[in-house]
Amino acid sequence: MPETSARIFSFEFFPPATAEGAAKLASTRAELTKLGPKFFSVTYGAGGSTRDRTLDAVLEIQSAGQRAAPHISCIGSSRESIRATLATYRDHGIRHLVALRGDLPSGSAGAGEFRYANELVEHIRAETGDWFHIDVACYPEYHPQAPSPAADLANFKRKVDAGADFVTTQLFFDNRFYFDFVARARAAGIKIPIVPGLMPIRSLAGVERMTKLCGASLPIPLQAELERSREDEAATIALGIAQTTAQAVELLHGGAPGIHFYTLNQSPATRVILTALKAAHLA
């Protein structure tokens, strides 16, 4: 089990679209900064649709003295546009990226010059050498577009072999998927850290939408309890905190190198969970 001091805790934000959203995110970041995260990551819209807002959020995080890791996706992008984005981040001293395939923008018919995330990782390494620490994603249950778990693991290994340093999983709610995935990854020769990504549930509708997007499943007992509390927002949020805390405790005891929190730009649930982990000497 990793030493507490070596564990990696990080938070993900999405770039706000309004001045009100930016003010709220600044408040959220200030609250979560008190917990001493390793870094904050910022998402990147389909086809680079939030490129400027992602950069603004990253620079604000960096100016506050925190490490920022912008997402960069390649689907629908040209090599020249990716080259320009990398140059912008280098010019601003950003040294940490989350490299993803990404989704096509709505209504787009072309995939651009890249098809898969491993091609993006290869391109970043060819253009910038070791300047960037590169994170990639994986799917404990397997990518919804992959024909099988074995095919998904092979795709994942190509990203790692292309030069990834670190892995964060998509969200999941049954830890058996994570432990099985890590065992299969290690058997395939993948040695880099695989950090579980967790999302505190806020509503049944929200979690159903997210699980559909990323191919995750809800355990039947959890889904039943969420159904019972569907009309009670406070009960649902409390259940989400309890679920994520229990997951995190088991994951850390089982050897996970840290936790990445999908915050949805909210601080209360994540703050409660990580504070509980610190009180239990797990963070």
Can you give a write-up of this model?
There is one protein chain. With 283 residues, the protein is an alpha/beta fold. It has one domain (4-279): TIM Barrel (Alpha-Beta Barrel), CATH 3.20.20. Helix content is 47%, strand content 15%. It has helices at residues 19-33, 51-63, 79-91, 117-128, 149-161, 175-187, 204-214, 220-228, 233-253, 268-279; strands at residues 8-13, 39-42, 68-73, 96-100, 133-138, 166-171, 194-198, 258-262. An eight-stranded parallel beta barrel has the order 1-2-3-4-5-6-7-8, surrounded by four helices. Strand 2 (39-42), helix 2 and strand 3 (68-73) form a beta-alpha-beta unit. Helix 3 packs across helix 4, helix 4 (117-128) packs parallel to helix 5 and helix 9 runs parallel beside helix 10. The longest helix has 21 residues, at 233-253.
Secondary structure tally, helices: 10
Q: What percent strand?
A: 15-25%
What's the overall geometry? globular
CATH architecture: Alpha-Beta Barrel
User: Ranges with pLDDT <50 over ≥5 residues?
Assistant: none
Count of DSSP E strands?
8
Give the integer mean of the pLDDT values.
92
Alpha-beta classification:
alpha/beta
Radius of gyration: 18 Å
Order of neighbouring strands in the sheet with most strands: 1-2-3-4-5-6-7-8
The CATH topology is what? Answer: TIM Barrel
Secondary-structure element string = EHEHEHEHEHEHEHHHEH
- Major sheet attributes: 8 strands, parallel, barrel
Quick one: CATH class?
A: Alpha Beta
Number of domains: 1
Q: What is the terminal-to-terminal distance?
A: 12 Å
Helix content: 40-55%
